[in-house]
Amino acid sequence: MKSARNGCKKVIIVNGHGGNESLLPFFGQSQLEKPHDYVVYVQWGSDPKPGVKGPARKTSMDMHAGEAETSSMLIARPDLVHIDRAASESGADQARLHLPDSVYTGIWWYARFPNHYSGDGSVATKELGEFEMNNWIGVISETIRAVKADNQSLKLQNEFYEKSAHPLDTRP
Fold first, then answer.
1. DSSP β-bridge partners for residue 23
2. Which of 38, 49, 132, 165 is deepest in the core (most CB within 10 A)?
């Protein structure tokens, strides 16, 4: 069994970039390749809880560097935000692929957003940024509390290793 090098029994990876929705769960799943005495948790997403509404949004397409992310940057690093430049490139979905929703290809993002920009950052506001940042902080805090209280994941992970190492074979 591979031991936690620094004595950590619970590792939380907080996804700070939306493009990792597939990679990070895959990484978490790959930790089951061999026994460990620690558990890897992946936290992503920061949708507000049902019924919680922030400031009204002016846009509906907002996947990268649009209204929400630019608003958040107005709080985190306002010195890096150039609202006057935000509308200089199109953040519109170019819809250049015509595949069913159940089909994935690695080029999907570029096919939709060749400028690597989705939305309209020119309508960003500090109010939305404060809401987004406070919501994300709340989600991370909730994740930490849940992981600290979790006493089942490591037990189940160990059970998984034990059963996969000694499969029940009832054949004669």
1. none
2. 132
